[in-house]
Amino acid sequence: MKILGIDPGLNHLGYACVEKSQQRFKVLTWGTISPPPTLSLPQKLALIFESLKNIINKFSPDYLALEEVYTRGVGNATLKLSQAQALVLLLCGLYNLRFKTFTPKEIKKFLTQNGNAEKQDMVSQIQWLSKHGVLSFVEDFEEDGLDSHKVDALAVALLLGFELGG
């Protein structure tokens, strides 16, 4: 089973595609889509759409796990994140992908047992899962190349994978 995890954003959208076999996960690809800041909103959305479409076509995920839009009361930021989330949901419809959304707190609690965990705590857990054979990477895993967007995308993909069982 393959799961594509998404941390939505217009300026930085994290993605991670994992393949689950029993209780082990292989990270097939992960990264961050960062459109140039000079692009207009429609151009950013088009770039994100095409990038995600290419990932879906290449890896053929069965499920999509999406981090819910959450902002601290900043209306404009909420609107922009909602546009990115709507784009992801559109792709789910076009590709007939089953999906589930999770709150940031649910994702952090799953990975670290603490819903208010810091990003470094999440990175440490990913390293632990890798060290203990639960998680492997097709590409080299380098801590200095990590950003919060792809870490969140990987965490939400793992959460759905564990939730689905098998």
SSE class = alpha/beta
Order of helices and strands: EEEHEHEHHEH
The end-to-end distance, rounded to whole angstroms, is 9 Å
In CATH's first tier, which class applies?
Alpha Beta
As a percent range, the share of helical residues equals 40-55%
Number of strands: 6
Shape from CA axes? globular
Mean pLDDT: 91
Strand content: 15-25%
Largest sheet: 6 strands, mixed
The structural domain count equals 1
The DSSP helix count reads: 5
What is the correct CATH architecture?
A: 2-Layer Sandwich
| Rg, nearest Å | 15 Å
Uncertain ranges: none
Throw out a few tags for this protein.
hydrolase, DNA endonuclease activity, six-stranded mixed beta sheet, DNA-binding, Nucleotidyltransferase, domain 5, RNaseH_sf, 166 residues, RNaseH-like_sf
Describe the structure.
The chain has 166 residues and is α/β, with parallel strands linked by helices. It has one domain: Ribonuclease H-like superfamily/Ribonuclease H (Nucleotidyltransferase, domain 5, 2-Layer Sandwich), CATH 3.30.420.10. The chain is 48% helix and 23% strand. It has five helices and six strands, in the order E-E-E-H-E-H-E-H-H-E-H. It has a six-stranded mixed beta sheet with strand order 5-4-1-2-3-6, sandwiched between helices. Helix 3 packs across helix 5. It is globular. The model has no long low-confidence stretch (mean pLDDT 91). Keywords: Cytoplasm, DNA damage, DNA recombination, DNA repair, DNA-binding, Endonuclease, Hydrolase, Magnesium, Metal-binding, Nuclease. InterPro entries: RNaseH-like_sf, RNaseH_sf, X-over_junc_endoDNase_RuvC. One of its GO terms (biological process) is DNA repair. Belongs to the RuvC family. GO terms for molecular function: DNA binding; DNA endonuclease activity; hydrolase activity; metal ion binding.
